[in-house]
Amino acid sequence: MRHTAAGPGRPADRLRAPDRAVLAPFPAVDTLICADLDGTLVPPSPPTPDMARHTADLRELCGRLTAHPRLALVCVTGRRALNAREILDSPLWVAGVHGAESLAPYAQEALPHPRSVPHLPAVRRVARLIRELALCPPEMHIEDKEVVLAVHHARLPADRAASRLSRLARLGRASGMEVVAGRGWTELRPPGSPHKGDAVAEMVRRWRPRRLVVAGDDHGDLAMFEAADRLAEEGSIERAVCVAVRGPGADPECLRRARVVLEGPDACRSWFRGLAHSLATGGGARLDVPARH
Ligand SMILES: O=P(O)(O)OC[C@H]1O[C@H](O[C@H]2O[C@H](CO)[C@@H](O)[C@H](O)[C@H]2O)[C@H](O)[C@@H](O)[C@@H]1O
C-alpha cells in the first residue's frame, strides 16, 4: 500500500501548493543543505518525551530555511519519504529510503529511483516469502518500504538479533539482495540500491549550489560526507561542510570526519538557524568557521 500525506489522495492543507503558485523547480542556489532526520534534526527513535517541542521547532526551522531564496533544504533519510514528511510537517524535497525514493514538496506520492524500479517485483516476492514462511520472529518487525525491506530489531540485544536475522539474511541473499545493517534495523536491498551519497549528488545536479552542507549522525550518513568531499574535489561545488550530530549511538567515524560537530538535534537546528540568519544578512561566514560545539 502506498503512503499518502493525509489519507488517500488528500495532502494536509499546509502541504498543498498555494493557488497560482509559480512552481519553478530548482533555481540555482548559493547553499544546499542535505540533512538526515533521525538523530540529526530530531532525536532518534523511540521518540523522547519532549518530541512535540522538537517537532514544533523543526517545523518552524524548515519554514525559515525554505523561505530563503538562496538556500535549499533536502531531507535525506532512511525513512519512507512520506513518513519523513509527516514528521517534518513541511513541504520539503525528501530523498527517502536512503535515496531509493524521492518526494517533491507538494507531491502526494514518492517516486522510486530508476535503479530501484526493475527490482520492485523481487522485493515484493521476498516480502511475501517472509510472510508465508513466518520467518520474522515476534520481537522483530518487517517494514515493507517497497524499494527495500527493513527488519526492525531495536528492542533486541545485538547478539540475539543476529541469530534471529540469519534466516532472513540467507533468504535475502539467495534472492540476490544485499544485507545492510543500521542502528536497530537491518535492510534487505536489491543490488545497486541508491545510498544517501547518490541522493546528495542528484540534488547537487539539480540545484547547482556553490556550497553544500551535509548533516548526519549515523553510519549510512557517511555516504553523504563522502559524496560532499568528492563533489568539492571534482569542482562541482566550491565547498563542502560535513556536520555530525553527537548523540546516543552516533557513528564514531561520522564524528571523526566531520568539520562541525554539534551536541544533539537541538544544537543542530540552532546551527542551521544561525546559518539562515547569516545568509539573510549577506554572510555565509558561518561556514568558514571550523566548529566543534
Ligand atoms: O536515516 P534516518 O533519518 O536516520 O532514519 C533511520 C531509520 O529511522 C527509523 O528507524 C528508527 O526508528 C525505528 C522505530 O520507529 C527503530 O526500530 C529503528 O531502530 C530506528 O533506527 C525508520 O523506521 C527507519 O525506516 C529509518 O531507516
UniProtKB/TrEMBL annotation:
Catalytic reaction list: alpha,alpha-trehalose 6-phosphate + H2O = alpha,alpha-trehalose + phosphate
GO molecular function, one term: trehalose-phosphatase activity
UniProt-listed SUPFAM superfamilies: HAD-like
Cofactor(s), names only, from the UniProt record: Mg(2+)
Presence of the UniProt keyword Cytoplasm in the record: no
Keywords: Hydrolase, Magnesium, Metal-binding
Keyword Cell cycle: no
Enzyme Commission code(s) on record: 3.1.3.12
Pathway noted in the entry: Glycan biosynthesis; trehalose biosynthesis
Gene3D superfamilies: HAD superfamily/HAD-like, Trehalose-6-phosphate phosphatase related protein, domain 2
UniProt family annotation: Belongs to the trehalose phosphatase family.
Protein's job: Removes the phosphate from trehalose 6-phosphate to produce free trehalose.
Protein name per Swiss-Prot or TrEMBL: Trehalose 6-phosphate phosphatase
Native species: Streptomyces physcomitrii
